[in-house]
Amino acid sequence: MSEDLSIKVRNELYRKKMKHVELANLLGISGSYLSDILSGKRDGAKAQEHIERIRKILNI
Question: Which structural domains are found in the chain, ordered by start?
Answer without folding.
Answer: 3-58 (1.10.260)
